[in-house]
Amino acid sequence: MRILTFIVLSLVLFSGCKKDSSNTPGKVSLVAPAKNSECTPVQSDGDNSSIVRFNWNAADHTEVYELQVTNLNTGTVQYRNTSSTVETLSLTKGTPFSWVVVSENSETTASVSSDSWLFYNPGSEITHVPFPAELSFPVQGSTAFRDVNNEISLKWVGKDLDNDIESYGIYLSNENPPTTLLKTTDAGVSELIVEVAADEVYFWKVVTTDEEGNVSTSTVSEFKTR
User: Residue 23: its pLDDT value, please?
Assistant: First the structure.
């Protein structure tokens, strides 16, 4: 009986000494640069770049924040690790960017990403290039199920600071990158129903054009069909 009691007490003490596995980092709330906006740089950094300040709200159970800023024209990502909720980066002028903040701590290998916000770092341009369209459906790498007509819906979201998007060009093919232009739609259309074959892998992208002739191209997304 004494041995059994000792074992039970040992288990209780051991479990009480373990780290709290529930301390997964919290999700950051982004503050600035504001979503879908033109940012206000801190200062110029030469002819082609300017210093942009990022800040966000603190997240629970977080020791380190990883700031990730993506140049939407080139796909280049800049990373910064900090324990603060403020960070600055030198960014190319006249360029659209996206940014996220990833929360991390030493008690777990799990990390949590914030939402992704788009912004524009101003330059000397009079008009803004549209943000690359966000491909929302089918989700990247997912399986799309055809309807009774062997069709699926392609959906996207377009944004432009000047609110002068003129058209979207939708490309879809079995090649990466896709080279077949399915259709060009006007600015009020953000969905296209297309016929696809079963058990195929498709790649698609959207090219956005505004009234000034500025053009942006989305990332390429991939999906399988059933």
Answer: 86
